[in-house]
Amino acid sequence: MRREYRSKRYRVNYKNIVIAIISVLAIVFAGIKVTGWIFKKDSTVYLEKKYGNQKIEKINKGKIVYLTTPNKKLNEILLENANKVKDKIKENRLYDCSSALYFNTIAQVNCSLKEGNNVLEYSKLAFNITSNETLTFDKIFRDNTRRVTDVVKNLSEVDKNVINIDDTHITLGNDDKNVKIVIKDNVHLFKTGNGLPTLFQNKQITPRQFTYEKGKKIVALTFDDGPLNAVHGKIRDLLNQHNIPGTFYVIGNLVERNPDEVLKTYQSGHTIANHSYTHPGLFNKNLTNIGDANVKIEYDKTDDAIFKVIGKDATTTRPPGGFVNKKVAALTNQKQVMWSVDSLDWKNRNADAVYNAVKQNIHNYSVVLFHDLYESTYEALKRLIPELKQEGYTFVGIDTFLELCKEVKNGYCNIADRY
Predict the structure, then answer these.
(1) Are 58 and 161 part of one and the same domain?
(2) Using N-to-C axis directions, what is the helix angle for 375-390 and 230-241, rounded to 10°?
(3) What torsion, rounded to 10 degrees, do the Cα atoms 242, 348, 220, 412 define?
């Protein structure tokens, strides 16, 4: 009896096992269907991210596959493109589009016109479904293309307008000749607002906008070497009080130490510009003699420090000590901006001396050099600003100054790229 009981106890119920296996497989494949996972021939698994639905229309014994997505603007573009190839459809020809969504924002649409197995035409479209715009090279990459070419050696040899984006790469160029950029390794190259990961992690900032009075004399107040101490904020607040813009040529490592001050200054409508990372401005140690690699570090680290705070690149640089040459300038896409009036506040740390240095040399289309480091500079500005207003001056940021200089013939405008 004991032996019979044990035999029944350990008897295998194969029917129940088969049912259990079938149930598990059903659950697994149901999950695969829901998530869109597909098993490829190489046994790897990936997530299919289809975006939109397809509708097939037969034309002249050929076919057009119309793609419809949840985005109205993108649908208009796709329909326009499909209608352009209608006349080319004939027997054994197929116009087909595939789509996928990446980073929850970028719809990548690739279309081709085929005759049998031969591809006659193709197009690639990267579209931001949040901003409703097609992503071009200039909308993806930050303004310093030299940094892109440092990463992508053969960029000039491919068509930058043919763009394919997926989870891991940006591919520039056609199928025959292209370059690939690994996204996760190059986030420092990407602008904000295009859906790609970027150095800027905050919400988009809308700074205050200043206007200037036409017909008046032009002056741009510029401030170097901050933000180091409380004087930076005092000068910013003084400019705000008088409703005038300033341009701050910041030191990169100080931006990293005082990001909140830089953000406040930018939000107040003032221009943030590049003044190197460590300020190599001595005769025996400056941008002209520290080597190309170090010049790139000085510029690029400061650009990144600024970008992380305000989400935009500086448009101009000022070389420390004014030491610059063509070789140095070629390492950045930004204009090298000098000055036409020196307050000498770094030398004469006296409010009266600073005031006199400016008042005795001020002229129409002046770019005045100050440093937002000294209390004496702040005190001098308290006198200078209202007096200059009374004398018929209007104040502009450096970008506006350079734009205005394009419209006039004034020797004092020659303060950019002077080497």
Answers:
(1) yes
(2) 10
(3) 150
For the chain, what is the domain count?
3
With respect to residue 396, please indicate whether it lies within any of the assigned structural domains: yes
Q: For residue 242, which phi and psi values (nearest 5 degrees)? A: -95, 0
For residues 221 and 351, membership in a common domain is answered with yes
In this prediction, residues 98-126 reach a mean pLDDT of 95
Residues 135-159 have a mean pLDDT of 92
Instruction: Clarify whether residues 227 and 129 are in a common domain.
Output: no
Q: Say which residues have a Cβ less than 8 Å from residue 7's Cβ, sequence separation at least 6.
A: none
Which one is predicted more confidently, 409 or 158? Answer: 158
For residues 399 and 250, state if they share a domain.
Answer: yes
Q: Is the pLDDT of residue 378 over 50?
A: yes
Residues labelled catalytic: 224, 371
The share of the chain scoring above pLDDT 90, in percent, equals 78
Residue 207 falls inside a structural domain:
no
Domain interval for residue 337: 217-413
The side-by-side arrangement of strands in the sheet containing 53-59 is 53-59, 62-68, 93-102, 106-115, 118-128, 133-134
Q: Helix 375-390 and helix 351-359: axis angle, to 10°?
A: 40
Same domain, 277 and 378: yes
Verify that 373 and 235 share a domain, yes or no.
yes
- Let me know if residue 273 belongs to a domain: yes
Give 43's Cβ-side CA count (13 Å radius). Answer: 0
Of the chain, the percentage scoring pLDDT greater than 70 comes to 88
pLDDT of residue 336: 94
Minimal CA–CA distance to 78: which of 124, 114, 17, 36?
124
Burial pattern 297-328, b for ≥16 Cβ within 10 A else e, equals bbbbbbbbbbbbbbbbbbbbbbbbbbbbeeeb
Q: Is residue 388 part of a domain?
A: yes
Strand partners, 123: 111
173 & 292 share domain: no
Whether the ω angle into residue 227 lies within 30 degrees of 0, i.e. cis, is yes
Torsion angle (degrees, nearest 10) of CA 339, 344, 346, 348: -170
